[in-house]
């Protein structure tokens, strides 16, 4: 068992940077530096380059974003906080220091509970303590072309963008907990609309602190995806386990390691780290956050929490967690579901089937058609009528699905009644029993596939489904499959 | 002789300017004649950004740095019809009180003779800027190129051709043996005013950098309340102390310039807000009401420093007696105990802030970049080692020590506490309210209006004496530092060849100006 704490940097998508009026680049930064065509160094103002004579001016919106995150992580928001300077020289650090919050961060002492009922892979409910949230500025980005080139480039588009650093206590004890938390956190910041939450383009960056009992803490940096975070944790805990098992010498300082995709590797030791010479910034005013501002944000700007919303979906619509999550993750789909649900109040049977038709048949048909869901894809009335037709034994389930696929791809037909459409396609179930013509079809199939009949009777009874399929194909869904099945069983005497 | 030729000739002797601006040929705006500063000229210290010439801070590090934007001070002065004639020499990055640590050599004192030229000729430099207006109607240079470019604004300036020794130090062989230091760090600005080259000059005052050179040149030098004049475009030395100061031979000129620059600026986070300014506007009316009444003048016993020369002591008493005789003042003895600890506290804070602020100069994005470097590491260390002078390096090291994990609590925090105490002590003795304090706090109804204390402990040193003991050099700031730590408005006036400071409570700039005017009438 290991202990893991996370440090997550989240880039805030405010309209302006933290301490300058530059807008935030909308393009995703790539890893090349091309003087002619790239967007490098386009969103850069005097402050972002630390030109002499410039001064930082705080963008108030960054503060609101931080308060939103602090509220949703149940943090104590500090009435007074301030900005500090953290000094170190680096090519992409234009000031020679980073403006961050070291002594008095904006928020502290938060906690988040992840429930097993929302995260079936957790073995129990999980409580994560948040040590603090600090507001700080991002650095520029160093770009190295290749080992052979002595040139490196710096893109200052990222310089001065607002970041929130969140630090958790080492509350994670297995991979699933980390995975669940990261998924929760990413969804949270997207839901709060404060960040895109993309790991791949660096909108959020995760550092891991990990150790197993009797081994000192190790910090792992540069983990670009959730799977790299999880794999690095697995690898590192095994590595520490082997060191202890084989009695190898232990490095007692806090070590920083990187991840190359397969293994963690040594970067540096804490002892060799620089003295950051933290000092309160001398010209940025103390941040005073009034309870009025907090109340206003709490009242008007906070979306419903993930846990509350999942509970609401599960309880109100009697959904399982899997279906609830699909709707939770797709606002438009959820909205469609809720309207359909309301409109089928008169037919509890259809209402009950609704979630299956939306999450499986509708999404499945969309995937086949290479479409994404939007409210114009199918109108509510047609969709409900379709489900009712199936439920009322007017058409078979299979034909219902075909009809849905047809409706999505032929929007004009949504104007017609679904029943008339089913008639047009000759899909209406005409008989509730085995009539003469059906009986003849069944006879023909049994004769044609005599070898399969023999197999069914001897060793492979499940092959009866194949015969059923052949019958339904001939009958074109005009008789319900369960009636045919019963007839087949009767004839084959099984 | 044309005005430019005269300036060039005087500058050859006193080495005042880091660059002299070629007079602009743009026609005078017909409405400009209504401007308060119409037809005046000024010089500005070379740590204020301007778009027309380099902004060097008298350092090799920025010797060729051209700012794409003007400082707010420059923008406001230009809008008020005043013309800048050049940028003035200073101690490197403002670090010093003598204007001898400049990369461009020392500036001489206007009060002492200098007949020979220090250098022979000037280099004319031309560059062009593509100017675009921003949303506030201010202009920035979106492109800066050497020489003349079609469609661009052409800028022309002159820089002295200086001889340097193998270490890069400027050689001046002809300095008159009677010459004394001009004070600093705004020494160029003070000498420019002293020699009547301009109507006024702009300097910056962190620990006395406007008041001390004003004192050494027998002119007025005003350091306003911290935050009253925007610092946007003033290259930071120690932001919690840096102020924009004004020097002139005329009180009225200082008054006009101050009222032109006394504006809130959204670009400067430490600029006093409009609401705060509205509150202290009452102060102007009250200062008028005081005229005709006696001003209560506090004399802090702590200012009787051991180092204070006998001549200055006597002159100080004489000044006070004269003002008493004229029924202008009554004198009250006060005590500000923390003045005793101000000097070490100041040097701890100022070096800490400087070491932090100067971290940005790495030669990467702008500024000096060494060419003969082929190492593996980034060249920051080599750029900084070559381009910073001795005093700058010394202060960066001192500051780094104070901010380090082993020096922070014992040095930086203690110094901050001294500063806090000092401000509290000032609040207790002044009658007026500190303009940033809560209203609830009691003010001392029987408190003083102003203080009058010396600006320096002695006459300026002979320039050939050399720098001597470094700590002794720091000691020269002992009179001016407490006002800097507390952000108080302070005016240097001259009396019998010595300088004295008139000090008001935080926010009481107009009381200081009003009183200076009255003193001026008497003396």
From TrEMBL, chain A:
What the entry lists under HAMAP family is as follows: GatB
What protein am I looking at?
Glutamyl-tRNA(Gln) amidotransferase subunit B, mitochondrial
Q: Which UniProt keywords apply?
A: ATP-binding, Ligase, Mitochondrion, Nucleotide-binding, Protein biosynthesis
Organism, by scientific name, is Pichia kluyveri (Yeast)
The cross-references to Pfam families, in alphabetical order and at most eight, read: GatB_N (PF02934), GatB_Yqey (PF02637)
InterPro entries in the record, alphabetically? Asn/Gln-tRNA_amidoTrfase_suB/E, Asn/Gln-tRNA_Trfase_suB/E_cat, Asn/Gln_amidotransferase, Asn/Gln_tRNA_amidoTrase-B-like, GatB, GatB_Yqey_C_2, Gln_synth/guanido_kin_cat_dom
Q: Which GO terms describe its biological process?
A: glutaminyl-tRNAGln biosynthesis via transamidation; mitochondrial translation
Asn/Gln amidotransferase domain segment(s): 335-492
| Reactions the enzyme catalyzes | L-glutamyl-tRNA(Gln) + L-glutamine + ATP + H2O = L-glutaminyl-tRNA(Gln) + L-glutamate + ADP + phosphate + H(+)
State where it is primarily located: mitochondrion
What SUPFAM superfamilies does UniProt report for this protein, alphabetically? GatB/YqeY motif, Glutamine synthetase/guanido kinase
Q: Which domain of life is it from?
A: Eukaryota
- GO cellular component term of the entry, any: glutamyl-tRNA(Gln) amidotransferase complex
From TrEMBL, chain B:
Enzyme Commission number: 6.3.5.7
Entry keyword annotation includes Nucleotide-binding = yes
Single GO term (MF): ATP binding
InterPro entries referenced in this protein's UniProt entry, alphabetically: Amidase, Amidase_CS, Amidase_dom, AS_sf, GatA
Q: Where is the Amidase domain?
A: 33-113, 177-513
Q: Name one GO biological process term.
A: mitochondrial translation
Q: Which reaction does it catalyse?
A: L-glutamyl-tRNA(Gln) + L-glutamine + ATP + H2O = L-glutaminyl-tRNA(Gln) + L-glutamate + ADP + phosphate + H(+)
Q: Where are the transmembrane segments?
A: none
List the active-site residues.
Answer: 45 (charge relay system), 185 (charge relay system), 209 (acyl-ester intermediate)
* Gene Ontology CC annotations of this record: glutamyl-tRNA(Gln) amidotransferase complex; mitochondrion
Per its UniProt record, what Pfam families does this chain match? Amidase (PF01425)
- Cite the entry's keywords alphabetically: ATP-binding, Ligase, Mitochondrion, Nucleotide-binding, Protein biosynthesis
Name where it's found: Mitochondrion
Q: What does the similarity note say?
A: Belongs to the amidase family. GatA subfamily.
Q: What function does the entry list?
A: Allows the formation of correctly charged Gln-tRNA(Gln) through the transamidation of misacylated Glu-tRNA(Gln) in the mitochondria. The reaction takes place in the presence of glutamine and ATP through an activated gamma-phospho-Glu-tRNA(Gln).
Quaternary arrangement and interactors, per the entry? Subunit of the heterotrimeric GatFAB amidotransferase (AdT) complex, composed of A, B and F subunits.
Q: What is this protein called?
A: Glutamyl-tRNA(Gln) amidotransferase subunit A, mitochondrial
Tell me what organism the protein belongs to.
Answer: Pichia kluyveri
The coding gene here is HER2
């Amino acid at each position: 068992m290991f202990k893991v704490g996370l440090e997550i940097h989240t880039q805030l998508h405010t309209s302006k940077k933290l301490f300058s009026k530059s807008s935030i680049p909308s393009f995703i930064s790539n890893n090349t530096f091309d003087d002619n065509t790239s967007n490098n160094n386009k969103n850069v103002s005097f402050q972002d380059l630390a030109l002499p004579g410039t001064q930082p001016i705080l963008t108030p919106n960054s503060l609101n974003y931080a308060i939103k995150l602090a509220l949703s992580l149940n943090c104590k928001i500090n009435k007074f906080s301030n900005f500090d300077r953290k000094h170190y020289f680096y090519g992409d650090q234009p000031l020679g220091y980073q403006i961050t919050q070291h002594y008095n961060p904006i928020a502290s002492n938060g906690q988040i509970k992840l429930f097993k009922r929302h995260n079936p892979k957790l073995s129990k409910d999980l409580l994560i303590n948040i040590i603090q949230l600090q507001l700080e500025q991002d650095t520029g980005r160093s770009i190295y072309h290749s080992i052979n080139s002595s040139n490196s480039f710096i893109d200052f588009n990222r310089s001065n963008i607002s970041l929130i650093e969140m630090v958790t206590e080492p509350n994670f004890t297995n991979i699933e907990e980390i995975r669940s938390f990261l998924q929760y956190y990413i969804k949270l910041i997207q839901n709060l609309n404060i960040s895109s939450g993309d790991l791949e383009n660096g909108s959020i960056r995760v550092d891991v602190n990990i150790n197993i009992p009797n081994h000192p803490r190790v910090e792992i940096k540069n983990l670009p995806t959730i799977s790299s975070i999880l794999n690095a944790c697995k690898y590192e805990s095994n590595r520490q386990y082997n060191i202890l098992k084989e009695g190898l010498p232990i490095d007692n300082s806090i070590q920083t390691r990187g991840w190359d995709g397969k293994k963690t590797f040594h970067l540096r030791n804490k002892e060799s780290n620089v003295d950051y010479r933290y000092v309160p910034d001398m010209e940025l005013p103390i941040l005073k956050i009034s309870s009025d501002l907090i109340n206003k944000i709490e009242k008007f700007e906070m979306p419903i929490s993930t846990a509350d919303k999942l509970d609401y979906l599960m309880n109100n619509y009697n959904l399982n967690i899997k279906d609830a999550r699909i709707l939770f993750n797709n606002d438009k789909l959820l909205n469609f579901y809720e309207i359909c649900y309301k409109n089928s109040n008169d037919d509890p049977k259809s209402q009950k089937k609704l979630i299956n038709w939306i999450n499986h048949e509708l999404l499945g048909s969309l995937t086949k058609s290479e479409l994404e869901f939007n409210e114009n894809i199918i109108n509510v009335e047609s969709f409900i009528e379709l489900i009712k037709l199936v439920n009322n034994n007017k058409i078979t389930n299979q034909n219902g699905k075909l009809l849905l696929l047809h409706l999505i791809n032929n929007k004009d037909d949504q104007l017609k009644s679904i029943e008339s459409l089913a008639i047009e396609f000759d899909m209406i179930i005409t008989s509730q029993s085995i009539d003469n013509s059906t009986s003849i079809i069944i006879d023909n199939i049994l004769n044609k596939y005599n070898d399969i009949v023999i197999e069914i009777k001897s060793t492979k009874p499940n092959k009866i489904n194949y015969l059923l399929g052949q019958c339904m194909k001939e009958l074109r869904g005009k008789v319900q499959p369960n009636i045919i099945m019963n007839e087949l069983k009767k004839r084959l005497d099984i | 002789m044309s005005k430019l030729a005269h300036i060039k000739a005087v500058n050859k002797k006193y080495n005042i300017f880091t660059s002299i601006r070629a007079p602009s040929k743009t026609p005078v705006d017909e409405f400009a004649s209504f401007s308060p500063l119409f037809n005046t000229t000024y010089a500005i210290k070379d740590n204020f950004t301007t778009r027309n010439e380099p902004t060097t801070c008298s350092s090799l590090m920025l010797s060729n740095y051209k700012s794409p934007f003007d400082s707010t001070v420059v923008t406001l002065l230009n809008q008020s019809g005043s013309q800048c004639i050049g940028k003035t020499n200073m101690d490197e990055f403002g670090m010093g009180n003598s204007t001898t640590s400049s990369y461009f050599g020392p500036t001489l004192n206007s009060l002492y003779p200098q007949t020979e030229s220090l250098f022979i000729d000037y280099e004319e430099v031309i560059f062009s800027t593509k100017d675009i207006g921003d949303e506030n109607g201010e202009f920035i240079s979106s492109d800066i190129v050497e020489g003349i470019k079609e469609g661009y604004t052409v800028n022309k300036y002159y820089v002295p051709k200086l001889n340097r020794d193998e270490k890069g130090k400027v050689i001046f062989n002809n300095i008159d043996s009677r010459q004394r230091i001009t004070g600093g760090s705004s020494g160029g600005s003070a000498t420019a005013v002293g020699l009547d080259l301009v109507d006024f000059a702009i300097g910056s005052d962190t620990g006395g950098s406007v008041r001390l050179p004003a004192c050494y040149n027998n002119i007025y030098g005003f350091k306003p309340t911290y935050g009253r004049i925007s610092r946007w475009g003033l290259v930071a030395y120690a932001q919690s102390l840096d102020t924009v100061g004004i020097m002139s031979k005329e009180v009225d000129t200082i008054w006009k310039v101050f009222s032109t620059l006394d504006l809130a600026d959204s670009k400067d986070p430490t600029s006093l807000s409009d609401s705060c300014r509205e509150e202290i506007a009452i102060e102007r009316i009250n200062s008028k009401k005081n005229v005709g009444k006696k001003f209560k003048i506090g004399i802090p016993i702590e200012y009787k420093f051991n180092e204070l020369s006998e001549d200055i002591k006597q002159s100080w008493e004489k000044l006070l007696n004269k003002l008493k005789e004229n029924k202008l003042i009554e004198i009250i003895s006060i005590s500000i105990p923390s003045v005793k600890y101000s000097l070490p506290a100041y040097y701890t804070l100022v070096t800490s802030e400087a070491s932090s602020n100067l971290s940005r100069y790495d030669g990467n994005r702008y500024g000096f970049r060494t060419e003969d470097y082929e190492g593996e590491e980034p060249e920051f260390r080599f750029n900084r080692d070559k381009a910073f002078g001795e005093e700058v390096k010394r202060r960066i090291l001192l500051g780094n020590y104070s901010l380090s994990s082993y020096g922070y609590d014992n040095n930086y925090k203690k110094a901050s506490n001294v500063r806090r105490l000092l401000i509290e002590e000032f609040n207790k003795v002044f009658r007026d309210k500190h303009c940033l304090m809560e209203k609830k706090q009691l003010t001392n109804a029987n408190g003083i209006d102003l203080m009058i204390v010396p600006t320096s402990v002695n006459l300026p040193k002979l320039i050939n004496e050399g720098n001597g003991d470094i700590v002794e050099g720091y000691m020269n700031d002992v009179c001016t530092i407490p006002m800097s730590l507390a952000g108080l408005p302070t005016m240097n006036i001259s009396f019998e060849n010595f300088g004295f400071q008139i000090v008001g409570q935080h926010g009481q700039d107009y009381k200081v100006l009003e009183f200076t005017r009255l003193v001026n009438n008497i003396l």
